[in-house]
Amino acid sequence: MEHRLGILRQVRHPAWYYLTAVDVSAEPPAGGAPSALMVFGDSLFDGVGTRPGTDGRFSDKLVERLVASHSPRGMVNASLAGNSLLHDSPCYGPKGTSRFEKELRSRTGVSTVFIHLGGNDIATAAVGDMCMANHRPVTAQELIAGHRRLIRLAHEYGVKAIGVTVLPLMGAVFPFTDDRGERVRQKLNHWIRTSGEYDAVVDADRTLADPGTPTRSRPGYVPEDGLHPNDAGYLAMSSQIDLNIL
After folding, report:
1. What digits encode the pLDDT tens for the residues 202-228?
2. Is the pLDDT of residue 147 over 60?
3. How far apart are CA 86 and CA 220, in angstroms?
4. What count of other Cβ atoms lies within 10 Å of the Cβ of residue 235?
5. CB-based burial, 65-87: b 16+ in 10 Å, e otherwise
6. Residue 7 and residue 18: Cα distance in Å, rounded?
7. What pLDDT does 224 receive?
8. Residue 176 lies in a domain
9. Are 137 and 84 in contact (CB under 8 A)?
10. 10 Å Cβ neighbour count for 33?
């Protein structure tokens, strides 16, 4: 356990205290209205795994690509490390299905949202972990229903919803999972990829999975925790985005 805690301390990233949001107005592009992107999810989008001070998160790298293509957009990072789609937590905040509408309502000009949630729901809670006191096993059908709720809310606000597949969890330091959780992850990812219910899909799973062992992440794309992308992993994820889908 001490070894695992040591690894978690190494990958922990600095927190931004007190500042909860920055809302910036801008001149609209010629012939259109200003629009912004939102990333909504867990530690994947929160940026765990990046080196401090490098602006290496998925959202940062995507904005850099947009600037380089002469089509800059605002970016809102509404992610919480440890957050679940279906479970409230005293440590990781309210479940995604509860907080999503508030984020949509309180952000200006969001036109597209990336959604990555579900990995923490299928994790196996450690004995005595108070942060996961409300945790219980979930089915793929329950997770799919939760994603459908987020898609419906996004569309009610006129926002395009882009689904992001859940990264490999086997072999990760945290969250822990087992064979049952892996089967649930595979079913959820298959639905995200093939159902057509999301307006577009980012297949982070296939981008980061180890080709030889697809249930684990590619070693060069993750730090020692075996899960969260490092700078190279986030760059690979952002590089696969077709900017035309935004």
Report:
1. 999 999 999 998 988 888 898 887 788
2. yes
3. 31
4. 18
5. ebeeeeeebbbbbbbbbbbbbbb
6. 27
7. 80
8. yes
9. no
10. 8
Cα–Cα nearest to 115, from 68, 88, 152, 71: 152
| 197 found inside a domain | yes
Q: Which of 111, 45, 119 is nearest to 77 (CA)?
A: 45
Length of the chain: 246
Type of residue found at 222: V
Tokens of 27: 């001149």
State pTM to two decimals. Answer: 0.86
Overall average pLDDT of the 97-115 stretch: 94
What's at 229, amino acid-wise?
P
Which strands form 74-77's sheet, in the order they lie side by side? 74-77, 36-41, 110-116, 160-164, 200-202
CA nearest 135: which of 9, 44, 127, 165?
127
Question: C-alpha angle 121/154/149, rounded to 5°?
Answer: 40
Total number of domains in the chain:
1
* Domain assignment of residue 143, given as a range: 37-245
CATH value at residue 223: 3.40.50.1110
Summarize pLDDT for 3-32 with one digit per residue, the tens. 444 444 444 555 656 666 777 665 666 556
